[in-house]
Design a protein that fits this description.
The chain is an alpha/beta fold. About 25% of the residues lie in helices and about 25% in strands. The chain contains nine helices and 14 strands. It has helices at about 50-60, 75-85, 100-110, 135-145, 170-180, 195-205, 215, 255-265, 265-270, and strands at about 5, 15-20, 40-45, 70-75, 90-95, 110-125, 135, 160-165, 190, 210-215, 225, 230, 240-250, 280. Strands 1, 2, 3, 4, 5, 6, 8, 9, 10, 11, 13 and 14 form a twelve-stranded mixed sheet that branches. Helix 1 (about 50-60) links the parallel strand 3 (about 40-45) and strand 4 (about 70-75). The protein is elongated and about 65 Å long. Residues about 1-35 have low confidence and may be disordered.
Amino acid sequence: MNSTSTSASSSYRYGISVTLVVCLAICVHVPTSAGEENAPIVVRGSSTLRPVVEKWAGTYGQTEGAPAFDIAATGSSEGIEDLLAGRADISMASRPLSQEELASAHDKGIAIRETIVARMGIAVIVHRDNPVSSVEVGKLAEIFSGGIKNWRAVGGPDEPIVVVRKDSGWSPDFFRRRIMGDREFVDDSVMVDSKEGVLAEVSDRPRSIGVTGMPEAIPALDRISLIRLDSGDSTKDSTYALSRPLFFFTIEDSPSVRSFLEYVLGEKAQEMIVDTGFYPAYQADSMAEQ
């Protein structure tokens, strides 16, 4: 039977660490770096997390006796598969474990440790020439579900709204759950297959609106503008950051992996990512998914 427990320690002050116990008896799993002196820490998984992890690894690697790193963006699912197969020490993921992955770990007799290491900002974007700078959350939900079809309804020009969105993936699903609730996206959306595609379409369509990752949006601010999410509540800060958690999955932490995790969750490592569109793991607000 699966169970979940959360432990806190001083070394994990700036992060959230949750141990997912997926078996009654923990099997012996040998991490890639175990048994080999000075072997690199093997990290596989999400392309979303890769630039952050490379930044952390670069600074951590400057400390005396730090191991080398072997980092590759293979995708969240592939990274988890490599972890379960013993081919990786750390799986970086932009989503939680699926029920199928939990079942696979259970069948192998493996206990997986889940650690939230950062949050990725979610950006609502419009064309650079669009005069609308903020939208109430309720009206934003209506725009993306088709209830509001003209910019005039949110203080813009009397022109139709074009919704641009990625056809599938964790980010659009997250946005729909957090902003739209049980509503579906409007049928006549312009569909693209990547976050970069959303940027390209919004940049080319003056009356469009889309959702992408903040790390992708920040370098494109010469072509697009960010929409502030207004709570509609005058007693609260009117600008809300929308973010989703990003994860490290590990099995049995070797001393080198454990030391790196402690570094990643420390204040210095967490603060160094804030200018890239990512937020520290411990920085959550009322619109962040817990």
